[in-house]
């Protein structure tokens, strides 16, 4: 296990996979609030890339789990740069899926000289309209009215209020019992799985397994409640700083979490971005999405190594 202490008492867990002498690639997980899994590295051409996975603040195996202290987008971007310096890497590729794509773009805008290329999947632009699409009755909820109503009831959401804000308030309330906190987190997990077409999780009586779900929901709702610590336009401002960075965006045309129209908007803003449309949704459980990502990673590696200016 490898750990990197950063600020506000956070200690990041990271791990390396793939070719030790390959092109460095930072794997940025989604969420916010989820973590990394070794199996994910297999999708990114480990034969050619040195893949570094890290769990963001409060996520996965990073400690303290679920901590919101100093947990904001700018801090996560600084953590990524601290990890690059810690590993003595000059330049690297940044991979990010969903929320991870948001962070990948924010990092590239802040540190463009360190980025060889971007590999994005199911990009989340983090605009106000994007998270409202997923959490208010006027967006994807219209396609799943029964599931959305069940979510509102489970979180005791007042009429006219956003259930994600109810989740945030419930989880930050010191009077909330652990079992209740787990049930609130579970309700949101069920909603996400419904939208992505996955089997909904059920109540787990083993209380030892509750904390991970609670931590994930705390971090997730924290970022949503604070508009991802970005402007209402999300990651779109400042993209001119990375116009010359080669990028590939793999996006499912049936994505109900991060709409395909957003992918077009992002690709149009980046002249060197190739948009790969896939007959898939948002989840990485879909084989067609996995295959497209594997192909994109292989192609990116080939393009980078064939570039006459590629550093030896």
From TrEMBL:
Q: EC annotation? A: 3.4.11.5
Q: Which domain of life is it from?
A: Bacteria
Q: Which UniProt keywords apply?
A: Aminopeptidase, Cytoplasm, Hydrolase, Protease
InterPro entries according to UniProt = AB_hydrolase_1, AB_hydrolase_fold, Peptidase_S33, Pro_iminopeptidase
Which residue intervals define the domain AB hydrolase-1 in the entry?
24-286
The secretion signal range is none
Listed under catalytic activity are: Release of N-terminal proline from a peptide
- Single Gene Ontology MF annotation: hydrolase activity
Q: Does the keyword Signal apply?
A: no
Protein location: Cytoplasm
* A Pfam family recorded for this sequence: Abhydrolase_1
> Which PANTHER family does this entry report, sorted A to Z?
PROLINE IMINOPEPTIDASE
Family designation: Belongs to the peptidase S33 family.
Q: What is this protein called?
A: Proline iminopeptidase
């Amino acid at each position: 296990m490898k750990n990197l202490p950063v600020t506000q008492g956070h200690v990041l867990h990271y791990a390396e996979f793939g070719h030790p002498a390959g092109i460095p690639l930072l794997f940025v997980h989604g969420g916010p609030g989820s973590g990394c899994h070794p199996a994910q590295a297999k999708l990114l051409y480990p034969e050619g890339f040195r893949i570094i996975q890290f769990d963001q603040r409060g996520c996965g195996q990073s400690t303290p789990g679920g901590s919101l202290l100093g947990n904001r987008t700018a801090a996560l971007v600084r953590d990524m740069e601290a990890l690059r310096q810690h590993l003595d890497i000059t330049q690297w590729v940044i991979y990010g899926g969903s929320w991870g794509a948001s962070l990948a773009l924010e990092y590239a805008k802040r540190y463009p000289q360190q980025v060889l290329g971007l590999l994005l999947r199911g990009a989340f632009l983090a605009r106000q309209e994007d998270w409202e699409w997923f959490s208010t009755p006027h967006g994807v909820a219209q396609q799943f009215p029964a599931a959305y109503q069940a979510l509102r009831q489970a979180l005791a959401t007042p009429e006219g209020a956003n259930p994600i804000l109810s989740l945030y308030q419930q989880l930050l309330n010191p009077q909330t019992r652990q079992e209740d906190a787990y049930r609130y987190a579970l309700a949101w997990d069920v909603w996400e799985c419904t939208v992505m077409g996955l089997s909904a999780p059920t109540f787990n009586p083993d209380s030892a397994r509750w904390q991970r779900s609670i931590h994930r929901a705390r971090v997730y709702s924290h970022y949503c409640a604070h508009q991802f610590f970005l402007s209402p336009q999300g990651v779109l401002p400042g993209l001119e700083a990375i116009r010359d960075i080669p990028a590939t965006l793999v996006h499912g045309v049936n994505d109900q979490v991060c709409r395909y129209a957003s992918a077009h908007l992002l690709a149009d803003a980046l002249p060197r971005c190739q948009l790969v449309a896939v007959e898939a949704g948002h989840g990485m459980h879909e084989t067609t999405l996995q295959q497209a990502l594997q192909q994109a990673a292989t192609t990116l590696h080939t393009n980078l190594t064939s570039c006459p200016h590629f550093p030896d």
